[in-house]
Design a protein that fits this description.
By secondary structure, the chain is α/β, with parallel strands linked by helices. It contains twelve helices and 27 strands. The strands form eight sheets. It has an eight-stranded mixed beta sheet with strand order 2-19-13-16-12-3-6-7, sandwiched between helices. It has a four-stranded antiparallel beta sheet with strand order 10-9-18-17. Strands 22-23-25-27 form a four-stranded parallel beta sheet, covered by helices on one side. The protein is globular. The N and C termini lie far apart (60 Å).
Length: 469
């Protein structure tokens, strides 16, 4: 049976009995569930969707550059807080603990690179840009231990936890922990839309306002391209934009990403889940919807405070049904990008693809560990020797899924500056100093091992055995 608002009193009394939840978490959770049950989802009328103008989605190269004047730059940076979303675990890549501690390059983790970048800014301009990590209950304990290693760095590091909500048992519509599921699996973090109330409830937001901070730059901790950008920051301060979402041109790999639209005079995020079935192909087309959300967001701190206090951030609810230990559960989530329509003078900025370099799988790790990128001062920069503006497409089989397996299959990461695509399946390993060019597929026959020898140069080849080398 489908749950209705009649289920609410029973749920509410069960939640009141969950001592692990704070008052803020209880009210936030009940608020989310009652919005879900009342079916208040915004209905998008397809015919009203308009493509945003350059005033609403500003081309990055039309923004005024920042002068080299050190005092102007310091003045900008003194208004900034950097916040990284650090709630995710590295489980999909076969790692334990927070994803941000996976080694990306030269023995440095995501978190190391972020701290080095901000430390360089603070040292160079004599400013004090703080780093804030939003953890989930899954990553909090590990992160607290990990950040101790940065005690002597020139970066103030703050952490806070996003909310912890109970999973709901679908058929009875009661919180799973109330039915005796007391371990971590009974709970979930409700998506990164929770960043705004949680930042406020942690007390950090008021503390930053009292220090004269004005904007927070929010980004996923696994996006290596999400570095502080003074051009964007200056534009927002000058134009009093309360919210800015960085978008970038779609490629065929990004067809499912959310896009910005103009709708009834407001800019808003359109996600694939909101699209009527008959328009899904149109949504995925690169012709009509040319940009997608990178989840690099710049938000005015006073505006966050005002909207959270007014309980005005009613982002679209993303129902996420799961089966855990044989029990069908429901978790309700929200996304930070969907908040754009509640802020005044909100804009998108169409940024270069270089600001979107997420590492979601070992295939991404191959790209960033290769000669396609160089690492300078904590910044991962693309090798100018590559003439093709897009990255090679990389498909690695399940044998490469875990980071440890991935690393054991490469004596060294191949040169891929001239590679268009690579597809690897089966029990394949690579020797050192291998060069891959053009279109390469490597397929080990079932039950056979296949090794690409040291120093091999492979160009536009299908390799199915040693005889093809």
């Amino acid at each position: 049976m489908a749950a209705t608002t009649e289920n609410l009193p029973q749920l509410k009394s069960a939640v009141d009995g969950l001592t692990e939840m704070s008052e803020n978490e209880r009210s936030g959770f009940i608020n989310l569930v009652s919005r879900y049950l009342s079916g208040e989802a915004q209905h998008i009328e397809w015919s009203k969707i308009q493509t945003p103008t350059d005033e609403i989605v500003v081309p990055y190269d039309k923004m005024a550059p920042v002068s080299e004047d050190v005092s102007e730059i310091k003045n900008l940076l003194d208004k900034l807080v950097v916040l990284k979303l650090n709630g995710g675990l590295g489980t999909t890549m076969g790692c334990t603990g927070p994803k941000s501690v996976i080694e990306v390059r030269d023995g440095l983790t995501f978190l190391d690179l972020i701290v080095i970048q901000i430390e360089n800014l603070n040292n160079k301009y004599g400013c004090k840009v703080p780093l804030v990590l939003m953890n989930s209950f899954n990553t909090h304990d590990d992160t607290q231990k990990i950040v101790e290693k940065y005690t002597n760095s020139n970066v103030d590091i703050h952490t806070f936890n996003q909310s912890k909500y109970p999973r709901v048992v679908a058929d009875e519509f009661v919180p799973w922990p109330s039915k005796g599921k007391t371990d971590k699996d009974g709970w979930y973090p409700p998506g990164h839309g929770d960043v705004f109330p949680s930042l406020m409830n942690s007390g950090k937001l008021d503390a930053f306002l009292s220090q004269g901070k004005e904007y927070v730059f929010v980004a996923n901790s696994d996006n290596l391209g999400a570095i502080v950008d003074l051009t964007i920051l200056k534009h927002l301060i000058q134009n009093k934009n309360e919210y800015c979402m960085e978008v970038t041109p779609k490629t065929l790999a990004d067809v499912k990403g959310g896009t910005l639209i103009s709708y009834e005079g407001k800019v808003q995020l359109l996600e694939i889940a909101q699209v009527p079935d008959e328009h899904v192909n149109e949504f995925k087309s690169i012709e009509k919807f040319k940009i997608f959300n990178t989840n690099n967001l710049w938000v005015n701190l006073k505006a966050i405070k005002k909207l959270v206090e007014a309980d005005a951030l009613k982002m679209e609810i993303i129902p996420n049904p799961k089966e855990v230990d044989g029990v069908k559960v429901l978790q309700l989530e929200t996304a930070a990008g969907a908040a754009i329509r509640f802020f005044d003078n909100a804009i998108g900025v169409n940024v270069p693809r270089s600001r979107f370099l997420p590492v979601k799988a070992t295939s991404d790790l191959l790209l960033v560990q290769s000669d396609l990128y160089t690492l300078v001062d904590g910044f991962v920069t693309r090798n100018s020797a590559r003439t093709n503006p897009s990255n090679p497409s990389i498909e690695l089989g399940p044998e490469f899924k875990k980071v440890s397996n991935f690393l054991s299959r490469f004596k060294s990461i191949p040169s891929i500056v001239e590679l268009d695509s690579l597809k690897v399946s089966g029990d394949v390993s690579f020797g050192s100093s291998v060069v891959l060019k053009g279109k390469v597929t490597v397929t080990a026959k079932s039950g056979a091992k296949l090794e690409i020898p040291n120093g091999a140069v492979v160009e536009n080849k299908d390799i199915n055995g040693p005889e093809d080398l």
